[in-house]
Write a sequence for this structure.
């Protein structure tokens, strides 16, 4: 018998957008009603950082190259790994969002507790880990 072939891992990248002035996180609402951190699949030729920049622009209209990270967590779907970068945006930038992608119905800025309520488990875990790391950095 031949060994079972493993399905290749699909890589996704996204951005945790933190508005430090307002203390809010940017989420996108997909057309299926689920909330998510802006993210998407990497193109075969794309570096994950480029994917994160592109997805943030496509889904929110916010463009930045000032990304930190990535931190990563495994998605709940088998064979999918998500890499999240993070950025701090200013209030003026935060208000200039415009959903561009066909699979996004709206964007919302929410408090951290509300973001954790709206997100699914895999992104909730990554966001909690990110908040923990940020708190450690603030108290050094």
């Amino acid at each position: 018998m031949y060994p079972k072939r493993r399905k290749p891992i699909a890589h996704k990248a996204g951005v945790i957008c933190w508005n430090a002035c307002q203390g809010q996180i940017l989420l996108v609402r997909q057309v299926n009603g689920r909330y998510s951190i802006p993210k998407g699949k990497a193109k075969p030729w794309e570096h994950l950082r480029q994917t994160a920049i592109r997805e943030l622009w496509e889904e929110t209209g916010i463009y930045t190259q000032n990304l930190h990270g990535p931190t990563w967590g495994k998605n709940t779907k088998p064979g999918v790994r998500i890499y999240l970068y993070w950025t701090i945006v200013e209030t003026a930038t935060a208000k200039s969002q415009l959903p561009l992608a066909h699979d996004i119905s709206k964007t919302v800025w929410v408090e951290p507790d509300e973001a954790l309520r709206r997100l699914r488990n895999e992104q909730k875990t990554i966001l909690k880990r990110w908040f923990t790391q940020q708190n450690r950095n603030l108290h050094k």
